[in-house]
């Protein structure tokens, strides 16, 4: 899914979620543009957000969303 200023890697229509794949192992390494893309995509399609990382499982709040 692409917009003028964002891109989401995968749209799971069956599970109603967006998937953004990224390589990081701590929240300090997390690129805010990855989160911003999920938020913008979710505002368009109304799906849940999901970020898939290499080595980290956590939840983070960003722009009023839980990712």
Mean pLDDT: 86
Order of strands, widest sheet: 1-2-3
The main β sheet shows up as: 3 strands, mixed
Overall outline: globular
Derived from helix and strand composition plus strand pairing, the structural class reads alpha+beta
What separation lies between the terminal Cα atoms? 18 Å
User: What is the helical fraction, as a range of percent?
Assistant: 10-25%
The total count of strands amounts to 5
Low-pLDDT residue spans: none
Q: Which series of helices and strands comes N to C?
A: EEHEEE
Task: Please report which band the strand proportion falls in: under 5%, 5-15%, 15-25%, 25-35%, 35-45% or over 45%.
Answer: 25-35%
Number of domains: 1
């Amino acid at each position: 899914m692409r917009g003028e200023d964002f891109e989401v890697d995968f749209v799971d229509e069956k599970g109603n979620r967006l998937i953004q794949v990224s390589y990081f192992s701590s929240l300090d390494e997390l690129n805010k543009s990855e989160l911003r893309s999920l938020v913008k995509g979710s505002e368009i399609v109304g799906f849940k957000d999901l970020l898939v990382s290499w080595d980290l499982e956590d939840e983070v709040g960003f722009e009023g969303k839980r990712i």
